[in-house]
Amino acid sequence: MTTFGAESTTDEVLTGVNLSGKRILVTGASAGLGVETARALAAHGAQVVGAARDLGKAQKATAVVREQAAHGGGLELVELDLASLDSVRNCADSLIADGRPFDAIICNAGVMATPKGQTADGFETQFGTNHLGHFVLVNRIASLLKSGGGRLVNLSSLGHRFSDVDLEDPNFEHTSYTEFGAYGRSKTANILFAVEFDRRHKGRGVRAAAVHPGGIQTELGRYMTPEVRAAMMANVAAAQANAGPSPFRYKSIPQGAATTVWAAIVADAEVVGGRYCEDCHVAHLEDNPDLRGGVRSYAVDPEHAKALWAKSEAMVGERF
Fold this sequence. Notes:
Layout: H1 10-13, E1 23-27, H2 32-43, E2 47-52, H3 55-61, H4 63-68, E3 74-79, H5 85-98, E4 104-107, H6 125-140, E5 151-155, H7 179-201, E6 207-212, H8 226-243, H9 253-256, H10 258-266, H11 269-272, E7 276-278, E8 281-282, H12 302-316
Helix pairs in contact: 5-6, 6-7, 7-12
C-alpha cells in the first residue's frame, strides 16, 4: 500500500481509485477545502452532494467541480446554514425524503476565530456552527450512511489543542471569551463527536474519523482581526521553535484536502475508525503543549465523548 504524507495531494491519494456509483455529502462546498474535496471526488467518478449556506456563491465556486467530473461523477447542491437548526433540519428532511444513500459524509464546513456571537438558536457561534449544526445534520441522516462501509469524516484542527470542551458553560455565559479558546472547544467537539459516532455505528460497519487538514490559507480565516491573526502567528512561531527540525509550512489546498479524502476513501476503516488523523496517517497521542503534532488525550477520551453527546442532545432538544 502506498504511504502518503504531509505533501500528498488529493489526486495523489486517489490515484487509481474509481468512485463510480459512490455518493458523498460534503458540507461547506462553496470555498477552499470543500470545493477541492468535491472536485477530487467527482473527478474520480463520485456523485457529490455539496451543502452550502449561499447557493449562488457555491454555484460559481463549484464550476471547476462540474468541469472536471469524470467517469459518471457529478455535483448537486443543497442549501445548509449550520448556524440555524431550522435550516439544518430542513436540509436533513429533504435528504431523507430523497432517500438515496451515502457512502460517506464529510463535515467540512466551519468558522474560525469569530468575534463573540450567537447562532440563530442562541449557541456560541463557533460551537453552534462547527459542532452542533453538524451533530444534528449527521444524526438525522445517519440512516442514509451505507451499512458495511459507510464513513463519517469530521474536519477538526490542530486548534483542538487550544482548549477542551466546557460542558458546564458551552456558550461562554460565565467564562471569558477568546476567539481561539472558542475555536479550540469546537474543534475538540468535532473529534469527540467522531469518537462516539464511531462507537455507536461500527456494529453495522459504519466508521467515523476526525482529521486535521493542516495549516492552509483559505477563507476560514476571514473573521480574524489583525490582532487575532498576529497572536495566532506568534503561537505558531513559538510552536515552531519547540518543534525542532520540522518547521511549520502552509499547505496548498489540494494538500490540505488530502487527509480528508484519504480518511473517507483510501484508509483502512479499522485503522481510522474513532481516531484523529493528520498528514494522511493516524495521529499519536501528544499532551506536551510545546509540540505541534498529535492529538490531545482529552479529545479522544471515550467517556468524555459520551458526555459531550448527552450535552449536545440536551442543547439541541433531540435524542439520537
